[in-house]
Amino acid sequence: MEDLSRFKQTYFDESAELLEVAESGLLRLTPGEVDSDEVNAIFRAVHSIKGGGGAFGFTELVAFAHEFETVMDGVRNNTVPVTTELVDTLIRANDLLGQMLAYAREGDPAPAGTTDGTVAALRRHLSGGAPQAQAPAAAPAAPPPTPVYAPTYADDEDDEAGLFGDAMAAIAAARAEEDPVPPGKLRWTIVFRPRSDLLMSGNEPAFMLRALRRLGDATVECHTDALPNLQNLEAELLHLSWTVTLLADADVDLDKINDVFEFVADDCDIRITAEAPPPAAPEAPPPVTDPVPVATPPTVVAAIPEAPKAEPPKAEAARPRPNGGGAEHAGLTSHTIRVDLDKIDRLVNMVGEMVITQAMIAEHVRELPPGEFQELLEGLEQLAQHTRELRESVMSIRAQPVSSVFSRMPRLVRECAATTGKEVQLVTSGETTEVDKTVVENLVDPLTHMIRNSIDHGLEGPDERERVGKPRAGTVHLSAQHRSGRIVIEITDDGRGINRPKVLSKAIEKGLVQPGATLSDEEIDNLIFLPGFSTADQVSNLSGRGVGMDVVRRNITSLGGRIGVYSTPGEGSRFVLSLPLTLAVLDGMVISVGEERFVLPLTNIVESLRPKAADLHGLVGKCDVMMARGEYVRLVYLHQLFGIPGAVADPTHALVVLVETEDGSRLGLVVDEVLGQQQVVIKSLEANFRRLDGVAAATILGDGRVALILDVAGLREMSRHMDSRAPRPPSPPVAALPAPALEPV
Amino acid sequence: MTLIKWSDEGGTVRLGLPSDLDLAMAQPLLDSLRAGFAASGTVIAEAAAVERVSTACVQALLVASRHAAEHNRTFAIAQPSEILAEACEDLGLDGWLKQWSQA
Q: Compositional bias (Basic and acidic residues) spans (chain A) (predicted)?
């Protein structure tokens, strides 16, 4: 029973992935531009879900999937035309299939009538797409006197190999003599003997045989010799088998034929052989003596051995690409395994603890007499290197491409466009960019909100766009890339941009900004992230409820990320999300301020230096700046921000760590000392305590002390607020500098 | 036992095949065929309404035709729909259908 549960879990996990595959394919299904590979992929996804469901006895799910699959088969077969309405129906069917899976997972029956509407819609397409039956002029008056079919070969359950070998030999030899294969073609002979319970797992031989027909000129011969008599027939057991002769172009290979049977490879015996055209020399037709692989025609290019007799585990039926019963066929060998996420998380935790232990050993080693224990030190250095590689390898296991999130967005855009009546084109790039699974999972809601906002608020309607000289269809560009050890996701639209006067007046109206306040463009743009803020005049299904962008920012911040907005009136807006690649471990620089230790993410650090007094300047009533590499950089005194006593206050006696945020702006952090580089294990502060401004997380250092991991962009915001709130405490003696000369940092 | 719609007219049993001959319908179809042959020497399966068909149901009809031939009974598939004809073609049974549906 426990094993069955495990197989079921695998089935549901795989079904979730298959649903995504189907949805992605459906969203790309465009009337007039039907990609047969895409259609096949959707069909296979639905078929796999159905097949697995049949194995577990999910009859309602199987019945519905069958309806869905039948329409997809019609699409494959060009009997059901692809229309926008059909695609909408199929997307709804895919959603419903997901619901049916949820019911099956919970062990609950679906409420009565759950599938009725969608099934009816599916059938309407089926009947509309396929020609209806035409009645002949008259009913038959008399039956034929004798049965039509005689056995083609004897049924012999005990000698399948012999049967196959003999049958294939006979077929190939006879045909090669009588009917040589035309040049440029291959003639395949496929003997397909399903197990009697094939139908009960939801498989339908007619679909497979039809799929074979699509590969070339096929002749299907049905073997009826194993049929029992009317009284002994069991309705759901299959007693038919087939031999298909397929004359196909040379580009139809074994893989394409195997693909047809990929779902039933464990539930049937299949033997496939191919004959090539005879050689060019006409005077010497090759003798046909050996049907097993030989070099001269008829050439058997491939043969799949019979499936093992033993019953495979039921969950095998749910595998999307079963092995096909022939281990030697490399194309069907899986290169992946499915691992429980808990196991990976335990591994990540253990690696985290190992990193801490390694840091503690390194701490103790520092106390050893210099020049001694050289081998031990070298060994520890190697251990540090291996720990780093191990950490990266473990993290890469958890890494997932953002495509799993991006692939959901076309549907969202489609729905938003339909709701708003706007024409929208979604462009995505960087889908293969990888990031930790947790980050990926938490991206869905923020991206959904932002794309909705871009379409609802940002993009103009088609007529308005035309008036201002833009294409009628607006474009939303969703991109991802790695930058500075983080993942940066951008949502750009070519709409009207943020209406700053409107945003400001709304903010004043809601009491978020004092009347008469002077705000920069950037500050006005950022008002949209305030709780309860909305410029929508009417609340719509999409946005305007004022619960959007502040939630987005909170979600992103809770992941250790940041969000920024950049807008140009009339040209559009760009939202930039910056998120850590992993939430487990980071490379940091340990710094001290007074008696406290902090960790700065290494990716933020540009350099550290001790400034001369001449490089320091004060902006009257604002902040201190430092001239570094030809530009002024705002100084941030960590001891002031965190109220740490006993710290070095004078930058000329302390150190300034120059750090850079994802948007390229720089800060100079005034610290007492830089203690050294270290891998640190990230411990969530929010989970264990609460969120703190300027702090991304916490960690445990080698000496067992807890240190806070600093959030550089958060420090910048804190210092700005501190500058605007109160007069700066008299810290360093710096020369005054006129304020206008400073670039915003 | 569930039987599909049928009528007995002058010793000829007429089975009205439903539009949906899926796997679940195989057992009722088989039961109906058995009952039809038990009741009469002539069984006609009216197939004009068939819109979906499974191999299991085709197999049941196939066995019925064989039964008729072997026991000197009369069996026919009347007005097979195009869907049924296509399914039989896919299954390599187009010749069989043609022979058993001839007027």
A: 308-319
Residue with tokens 């691992």: A339
Per-residue burial over A506-532, b = 16 or more CB atoms within 10 Å of its CB, e = otherwise: bbeeeeebeeeeebeeeebbbbbbbee
Instruction: Name every chain B residue with its beta carbon within 8 A of the beta carbon of A139.
Output: 44, 46, 76, 78-79, 103
- Inter-residue contact A698 to A710 (CB < 8 Å): no
pLDDT digits (tens, 9 = 90+) for A195-212: 888 888 888 899 899 999
The reply to whether CATH 1.20.120.160 applies to domain A2-128 is: yes
Do A209 and B90 make contact, defined as CB atoms within 8 angstroms? Answer: yes
CATH number, span A402-580: 3.30.565.10
Chain A contact for B36 (CB, 8 A cutoff): no
- CA distances, A156 to each of A159, A198, A509, B39 (Å): 6, 19, 87, 35
- d(Cα B70, Cα B73) in Å, to the nearest integer? 8
Residue A39, C-beta contacts closer than 8 angstroms, at least 6 positions apart: A25, A29, A72, A75, A76
CB A191 within 8 A of CB A268: no
Residue type, A194: P
Q: What average pLDDT does this structure show over A728-740?
A: 39
**ipTM score of the complex?**
0.95
Three-state secondary-structure class, residue A622 = coil
Class of domain A585-725: mainly beta
pTM equals 0.47
